[in-house]
Amino acid sequence: MTTTAERPVRVQPAPPPAVRLRRPGWKDPRLLVGIVVVALSVALGSWAVSTASRTVTVYAAGAALTPGTTVTAADLRAVEVRLGTQTDSYLLVADGLPDEAVVLRTVAAGELVPASSLGAAADLAVRAVAVPVTTGLSERIVAGAAVDVWYVPEAATPTAGAEPGAAAGDGPPQPEPLVEGVTVAQVDEGEGTLVVGGPTTVHLLVGVDDLPAVLAAVAGDGTIALVPVGAAG
Question: Over the stretch 42-70, which tens digit does the pLDDT of each residue have?
Answer without folding.
Answer: 767 656 555 555 788 899 999 888 888 88
